[in-house]
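Example 3.2
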Amino acid sequence: MYYHANPQRIFEMSNKRLTIGIVQQRNGSGVEENMERLEEKILGLAREGAQLVVLPELHNSLYFCQTESVDQFDLAEPIPGPSTLFYGELARRAGVVLVTSLFERRAPGLYHNTAVVFDSDGTMAGKYRKMHIPDDPAYYEKFYFTPGDLGFEPISTSVGKLGVLVCWDQWYPEAARLMALAGAELLIYPTAIGWESSDTPEEKARQLDAWRTVQRGHAVANGLHVVTVNRTGHEADPSGQTNGITFWGHSFVCGPQGEMLLEASAEKEETLVAEIDLQRSENVRRWWPFLRDRRIEYYQDIVQRYRDLK
């Protein structure tokens, strides 16, 4: 007996192409102005053929986590709320799947750093609450955000299953792996990361290289494209305790072997478009079958905080 492949199915599998638009923006203190500028850029990317558009982390405002101030909680909104109404309608007008990053007011005194994804018809496809919350000088996120409780579940959209994570999550291989094991077709990281001015040029270079490398590693280990969108520009520390953060830009898209397909500059606002072939993940996983060769029967200890071996 001979197996006759379906020619139509072969054609469909070899043509899973997706055009991705990224918005690397420098934000100001005016939320409405920031949103208007994002609107213009999203519509522009749609005119360039983007089917999926990704925005940076907490894109509506300045990065308010440089200080601990209860007044900043006024920036938070319910989901659904005014911002989801705005971005949902914008996704519909542009005809794109849109990945946003919002400060969610879930209940009085309960807030999350939440990515919300809208499908091209404007409906809310799903949301992801940031799981790993940093607490470092100028990044006082634990003051503001409760860790996420939605798990690592891809969001199904008209362009595929999106493994959406947020910023600090990008350093954790477990998060990327769990998204991949749940069927994510690409990994997406809205991001706000930069340098404090006291770092030496050598240290800045090491940090940037590590940031790129760890995410390219997630691409390789899971056979998936990675889309990372950072903000750019300098934002002052309102308290004056530090010299503020210079966000390092360098938003990028890489392929499932870690190959860089697109990278933005450090200091410029940019809207860029990359076309990817989602079928390439299938091909790479056939060549490098890391998922096949995992020894899951020996991985139980990974859920321990630390292995205190005697």
